[in-house]
Design a protein that fits this description.
Layout lengths: L2 E5 L2 E4 L4 E8 L9 E8 L6 E6 L6 E3 L7 E6 L4 E6 L8 E9 L14 E2 L3 E6 L1
Parallel strand pairs: 2-11
Antiparallel strand pairs: 1-3, 3-8, 4-5, 4-9, 5-6, 7-8, 9-10, 9-11
Length: 129
């Protein structure tokens, strides 16, 4: 009924870039444009944390301080897809990256993990020094 699939992860060297994609499918996401999408990550042996989010219309975004200026989130509602462009990667960006969705047309992007109802399986990003 509702599926989020992340792709684009991999192994890169410090300073390089990756673009992650999160594609939504299923009956629930027929109204994909009504969902706020967030990216979260879980580094090894650490808790999952908010990375970036974009509201339903794409006119409001939010970023963790650790990625501001390096990561950019965007969405293409025609393709039911949200992207996370990650530049200047460093070893601290190594983690499993998850996308998540929460329904709502509010302008602000919530950073609370508990607010998101649907989650993908994650994609591994490994940055070597």
């Amino acid at each position: 009924q509702a599926q989020l699939v992340e792709s684009g992860g991999g192994l890169v060297q410090a300073g390089e870039s990756l673009r992650l994609s999160c594609e939504a499918s299923g009956r629930t996401f027929r109204s994909f444009s009504m969902y706020t999408i967030g990216w979260f990550r879980q580094p090894p042996e650490k808790e999952r944390e908010f990375v970036a989010g974009i509201n339903w219309s794409g006119d409001s975004t939010a970023y963790a301080d650790s990625v501001k200026g390096r990561f950019t989130i965007s969405r293409d509602n025609a393709k039911n897809t949200v992207y996370l462009q990650m530049n200047s990667l460093n070893t601290e960006d190594t983690a499993v990256y998850y996308c998540a969705a929460t329904w709502g047309v509010q302008r602000t992007v919530t950073v609370r993990e508990s607010a998101y109802d649907y989650w993908g399986q994650g994609t591994q990003v490994t940055v070597s020094s």
